[in-house]
Structure formats: structure tokens, C-alpha cells
Amino acid sequence: MSLLEIRELSVSVDGSPILKNINLNIGKGETHVLMGPNGAGKSTLGNALMGNPAYEITSGSIYFNGLDIKGESADKRAKAGMFMSFQNPLEVPGISVSSFIRNAIMQQTGEKIKFSEYRKELAANMEILNYDASYKDRDLNVGFSGGEKKKAEILQLLMLKPKFAILDETDSGLDVDAVRTVSAGIEEYQKNEDGALLIITHSTKILESLHVDFTHVLVKGEIVADGDASLVSEINENGFEKYI
Amino acid sequence: MRLNRLHSLTWNALKLNEVVLEDKITLNGSGKAMVEKIPAGVIIGNESCSDCGGCDLKDTTALKSIKCGMGEEADAFFAKASKDVLMVHARPGRKVSEPVNIRYLMENGDSNADRVEILAEEGSSITVIMDYSSSKREAAGFFGVQTRVKVGAHASVHLVKVNLLGSGFMCLDDIGVAVESEGYFDITQMCLGGKRNIIGVAADLTGYKAGFNGDMGYLCMGSQDLDMNYHISHHGRKSGSELNVKGALRDNARKNFRGTIDLIHGAKGAVGDELEDVLLLSEGVINKTLPVILCDEDDVEGTHGASIGRLSSDMLFYMQTRGFSKHEAELIMTKAKLNSVRNLIGDEQTHGRIQYYLEEAFK
Questions:
Q1: Do A53 and B323 touch (CB under 8 A)?
Q2: What are the counts of helices (DSSP H) followed by strands (DSSP E) for chain B?
Q3: Domains and CATH numbers, chain A
Q4: What's the pTM?
């Protein structure tokens, strides 16, 4: 049984159909890459999977761990083990990075966590992301550069340890060094053998150091090609032209 | 008693021109100020003893003419209710790093009004924390305090006001400030407790480059009622003011906010800015906001902005993807708003008290 099963999924935004009859299976521990030109509907799929109410599922179904989650709110999906890293992470004034993540862990697990252990784990993960320790006490994403915001997203990924994570354009707007750092964080997540990923991107920079199992090409709301990691290299060389 | 009257009246239909206090206030004098710390460089005493020669409290006659935010009827009330004045005096040039802590522990049935005067002489700096609290959450009574502050040239005052009174308290918090050349007045307020709270703040920026910064955080729940009136008058050239008011309303709470930036003729180069940020958590709340900018000078800048509403759908979705339900997301964002004000209070003990109060409130 797949961890995530998407069957004949169609999604509209403000009444306009964006995704048409998407089928996708993602198993435990698998890394899938969803590529496609701008406006193909990649982020729409991520948002629909995560339960963003602005994205209306007009037909089809989504099963996570065998359960139909189509009608569930985003927080229930998160508690079930889903996660999404945002393309444009929001600023949360008044809550420190450390406090936000700790609260999120407690919300998801329903259990209190030992502060000393938590701080230790947080420090270790921040080190992987080459994150200055002072950031843990700063308000989440407030005044952060684009790169620091993306690091904060990956830090949450590492701390929350979801079963399945959608990384929506995590590499967009990052310089080469920042992409490398964020990749290191994703690689760390991949070490968790059960953790599955759907990496949404239209560039291939972030994939260079990551293990990829499957690649899908989305064009005009439809998956037009599936393949293994070699499809990434092909797109890197030839672009999306042949699929448009 | 008519309080918090607008300088420039607006439509009566809005019912924001003033607040009328019909309740009869009976004082029993219980609930006195406790000064917890007297740092070096600060003199504290009562007006009644200032002429005795035993201490060198400066004559604070000049403070008496400072206008407060609630208006003349409040002046008369406080003059009658509180015969004595607690005086805090920072000597010239003294930079006092430790805060002066003035606590009022108001228990059930306590009813008291007090007057406080703070004088920061030229080149001095001082922080005064005034904390009104009750040990029992359901305590009821009355507490009023009128605070006048004179900030001398090149001096700075940080005034912190924290209201953690019991849920049956009425509280009048009347403040008047005068700031001289290149002086700076910073006020941080947290209004969490009490049943009915009325706050009036008037600031006269009299000197060249006189500055005012205000940060106010509030949480109104149940049937709490908060009425605020801020009037910042720019007299001095290049004087500057910034006011940030943020909070949340829940259940059937009511809140009025009046914020006036008064750019007076002659205040060339003055800049005033006010911003309100309100989170509405229930259908039954009543929120009224009246930003006013009065301008009698060409070369000035006055701006206001407001963000009033529910948690944005983007923010809610972001929080939900981290496992927070809508209710939990609202709570955490309310705490975040209040924490962003609380964090401006540089005192661990006061932080702790606010934290505890909020944790209890959200149980």
C-alpha cells in the first residue's frame, strides 16, 4: 500500500480548473520530484494535498496511510504526518523560532517534550542548516532573508519529522550556497528511511545532491511524463519544450 | 464623569466623542503602592514630605500643569481622591539602568486612587514599571491612577504599565507627559485584567526633536470593556511620535480606540505615525477605532494605519500545516501579538507575571 495515493484528482481555484485527473502514488521513504514550467499547477497540487481551502477539489480522492483525507482540514492532515514547506513562508511576529516549533511538536504529538532534549535537537539541526544559534530566539521569519526563511522551513521539517513532506519551490530565490545548505537539510530528512518527499521545483539545482526515485512532469494541469531520476537530467538539458 | 473626550469632536452617532462613567466610585483607601526597588540615582517620596527639608526631592510644581489624557473631570476626581502624590525623581545626568518597580496589589473589595509624578531631569534616563494586579482572578473593586511625567532635555523615560487586575475591577489609568528638547518618552502598556478599563494618554512634545513611542497590548474577553484615548501634540520642530496599539477581542468584549496626532503650527518637520492591529476572535465583539490627524503646519507628516479582522486565511493555513487547529492558531497568534509588546518590558519578574496571567486566561 502506498503512503499517499492520489486518484483522478481535479482541482479548481476560484472556479477555474487547474489540475485535471492527477494520479500519483508515493510510497514510504520515496522521493518524488514534480517538475514543470511556471503556471503548470505544481503548487496547486501541493496546496490541494495539504488541504488549503482556497483550492477546491472538484473530483477524485486523496488517501494518506489508507485513509481518505479529502475532507480533512490542514491541521488534521499535519497531525496525521503531512507537512508542507512554503514557497513564501509567513512571518509570525511575537513567537520565536524555538517556541513555534516546540508548540507545533506538542500540538502534533499531544505530549509535552523535555526542554533540554528539545534544545539539544534544535541546536543539532540548526548546525546542519548552518543556522546561527541566535535565530532560535528570533521571531519566526520576521526580518529573515529569503534564504533564512527557507532554512526555517527545513528546520521545521527536521524537527517535526513528518511521514510525508511537500517542498514547494524550496530552492526559489536562493543563491548557490543557500541551495546547498537547504539540500543538506533535506538530505538529513531522507536519512529517515520512512520519510517520503514530494519536491516541487522548476529548476534542478536543489536535486543535485539528493537521491530521487521518481520524476513527474506537470504541464497545463496534467502529468504528461513519469520517469526515474534520469528524467531530471533530461529536463535539465532540454527543458520542458517537448512536453508543452 | 465625562472622560477621554476627543479634542476634535466627530459624529455623535459613533458614540466615540467621550466616555461617560455613570458608576458611583466609593473609595476606601485600601490597596496602596509598594515601591519594590529604588535604584541608585533615583529619589522616591511623597509630595507631602517634600517641603520638610529631610530629603532633596525637587519641587515638581511644573508637573501639575501637564495635561492628562482623560481630561479635566478626571483631574478633579484624582485631586479629590488622592491627597498625596508619589514622586519619582531621576537626578540630572543619571542613567539609571535598574527599573523602579511600583506595585499595587488590589484585592477583592479594595478601592483606591493614586497620583504619581515622574520627573526625569536633563540628561537622565529612567524606567518605571507600574503593575496593578490582584492575587485572585475574580477579585472586584476599583483602582485609579493618574501619572504625570516630565521628560527633561536629552532625558529619557520608559514607563511600563501592566494591568493584571481581577475580573471585577474598574480601572482608570490617566497619563500626561511633557517632553522637552531631544527628550524621549517611551510607554509600554499591557492591559489584560479588569472588567472595565479606561485609559487616557496625552503627550505634549514641546521641545525640538522631542520623541514619543507608545506600544500598547490588550486582551479583552468575556464582557470586558476597554476605552482608550491617545492625544499626541507636536509643538516642537522635528518632534516625532509613533504609536502601535495591538490586541485581541473575544466573546462579547468591547473596545474603543481614539488616537489623535496633533501637528500644531510651528512644529516644522514633525512626524507622527499611529498603527492599530486588532484580532477579532468572536462574532459578538464590538470594536471601534478612530484615528485622527490634526494638521496646522505644512512641513509635517502624519500617518495612520489599521489592520482589523480575523486571522488571515494565509496565516491560518500556515499554522494549520504545522498542526494547529483554527482555535489553537487564534490563541497562539493572540499570545504572539501580546508577547511582541511584553518583550519590550525589560523586566523578568513582570514578564513572568504576564506569562502566568495569559496562560491562565487561555485555559
A1: no
A2: 5, 20
A3: 4-243 (3.40.50.300)
A4: 0.81
